Amino acid sequence: MLKAIAKPFGKLMLLLYNLTGNYGVAIILFALVVKLIMLPFQLKSKKSMMRMSRMTPRLKELEKKFGNDQQRYQQEMAKLYKEEGVNPMGGCLWSLLPFPILIALYQAIRYPLTIMMGVAEDLMAEGGAAYQLLQQLGYQTATGRSMYYDQIFQSKFITENLAAFQNISDKFQAISYKFLGLDLSQVPQFSFWKWDFSDTSQWLPALGLFMIPVLSALLSWLSMKAANAANPQTADTQRQMRTMNLIMPLMSLYICFTMPGVMGIYWIAQSVFAMAQDIILNKVYNKQLDIEDADRIQREKAKEAELEAKRQETERLKAEGITVENKNTSKKNKRAVAAQKEVERKAAEARAAKLAKKGLSEEDIPASQVGDRRYARGRAYVPDRYTNPETAEEKTLAAAAESEAHEEPAAPEEAVPEAPAADSAAAPAEAGSEMVTAAETAPEEAPAGTESESEEQAPETEEEEKPSEGEE
Question: How many structural domains does the chain have?
Fold first, then answer.
């Protein structure tokens, strides 16, 4: 299965090698072609990741607001993603595509004869014509870890004896794995202490291969730094990125020390192209996202201003006692409003009937009155003070004057005269006579039944006084 997927990559590698005649340059061009093919997807992924980074402060606000209600927080977060057109998994999905390509390229490099050149597998299998010719010419099959790259060594041997193998198949062709004096078919050796430093022809190429994984890890780290340089990050994101910035370079170091040097060259080329791409895209997308953020902020301000205007209008209508039907109101709420209006209608009819008994009408009720409270809205209340501001001051003064005129003055308290100290013996009689006089002179102000009670009490007082005079 993997070999079938890898065949197009092998054909592309062979085409680039035939164009350049250099295996290292061909693998660099291969990395460039892959980068260009992946560019449309990576553009989308990059923009999605940058948008996600810019949304981090807003997500923090949602977390603070709905931190205790995770279900509501997830709903609000999904709503925010939908409004902004952001897919949280969009950036991760496309960033994983290079790994299948890397695996397919590894297959193409590992099997240069059957995948790159397209030689039939039965020719290279044990007992096949090409296999028998290799044995006849003295080829030694690789052992140990090198057996995984046996076709690479077979390809190098066939290049030296190309004429003999072209009689078997015309697909065989010569390939040189040399690049900058290095044999890219060799696997870099980490155990540098085993090198023979007495022979420069031995340790210099080994040092060059050793530096390929080191450069690959370093450039992988720089590439990730460049990718995240323009993105604002929270403390949690920074911790996660520090972990990724450590894991990916170490993975690159391990892979390049376990595979032929050509894989390290590919990784280095990919990192360089990725850094250049990120630097350019950061500049381009930052400008675009700045414009989008400015438009979003402007829309939010306009929405807030509209809501504030509606709120003020609602307050004004509420102050004037005006209600406006909302078209979006549900049937249940409409029935509740209708029932409330019916209650208010019946209350108005009852109030009108009560006023009619008193000989009054609705016109006699001031605009400031609510229920039985005459000045519930204020003693100088004017209903149209907003719609007719030019007459508001005059009407306000008139309303204030009307409220002052309507106030009833408080009745003064009647002072009771004090009896002289010298006539203390006649004080009871005088007090009784004063009570009778007060009851007789103010019959209208006394409540019902007060006058008769006073008249009944007066004779009793006079009868009580007569025996006292006899005693004297």
Answer: 1
